[in-house]
């Protein structure tokens, strides 16, 4: 061997020495806090994780599997891209922590020198529903799809005679082993009973949404690892005599399971500055040049944008798509041309879709453009392809249909002290507009409906209201074309006191899926 070759071999050996020594020095005590932070919440008895990871012996027995799912970035699940936007519920393992766990596995998973780290002792935290209002499923539901995910919708009526605001909202899963997520919408329509009667079991099965269009869609969302305390304290409006439309995503457990979940919250009647509203700011309704179907054996890029007509602060966003969607990119472009990154998901999976809470509310001025782009892969290369061979997939709510929608939670930053207007975020075409108005000093006010498509004022109405109480009305108007509208509440001189958005959509025909 030449001197240069010997030097190269010696150099490699020399630099490997500290790496091997470092690997030998690592033990379970170094990685136990990482498992406690990222894994144990779900992977413990009584929770949804399929195996417990609560102590050294349990984690060691699954060591090679843990290495695989971390390298494949399969766990932790539901990952937004780390370098795009800032979210409270980001669960991605930092590269330094990922390397630390992999080094521990490769070193033979040595135990800790400290006996106390053998048990992570993170017990399930199941809060007792203690609040002014508690609404539970009135029947225990038997999960019958034990080897596949299941989507079941439950209709829970409320008994409020006047409009109220809910806050300190808590969802309480009855069976944390199978409850993977919950999305709650609110409606005042009685159409939900027809859907409930269709399924002989308690509730009814529905894959892509609740089966019809609720006025207050995505009123509240819950995932077991995704609870934002500041969001729970914000006010959400409940109209009188409304229904909770509870969409439950049950995960497979391998054995028959039962669930009876609850929702609890406190109520107040008078509006404050912390009112949060949800609206599908970008969707197929605001998209241009979109195909009627997603062609088979090709990828399709869908783009939609919406320009904000008034100032608001975005607090969270929730993209919705089905099995063909592979990625999302969502951002805001300010009137000055600045880009505000909101969310990017390079590996979209419907089974892990969730709401993403921003680290802090993002104030956006009127004129800001919200943009969303998504790619759909309708080929056999898509591992989630539902059809074999691929077929043209239409837009809709079924398993062999697709969706494109991003629902935003926002707070209006300019709120009048003298009047407050509450309307649904969505209106089914041909239905009357439900109005809820709170005033402190007005006796008369005017409601105006404006088209954001450039058609100006569509209709207006003068109402008599009583100070310091809710006024509820149903505004019968001519059937509106599909699109986005803005409602203005003003005094008789024309001064605008409040404004809100209204998205007019087609009803979903559940029975023609």
Task: Describe the protein's architecture and organization.
There is one protein chain. The chain folds into four domains: about 5-120, no CATH class; about 135-270, Jelly Rolls (Sandwich), CATH 2.60.120.310; about 280-415, Sandwich (Jelly Rolls); about 420-505, Immunoglobulin-like (Sandwich). The protein has helices at about 5-25, 30-40, 55-60, 65-70, 95-105, 190-200, 230-235; strands at about 135, 140-145, 150-155, 165-170, 180-185, 205, 215-220, 235-240, 245-250, 255-260, 260-270, 275-285, 295, 300-305, 310-320, 325-335, 340-345, 355-365, 370-375, 395, 405-410, 420, 425-430, 435-440, 445-450, 455-465, 470-475, 485-490, 495-505. By secondary structure, it is mainly β. It contains seven helices and 29 strands. The longest helix has 23 residues, at about 5-25. Mean pLDDT is about 85; it is low at about 1-25. Helix 4 packs antiparallel against helix 5 (about 95-105).
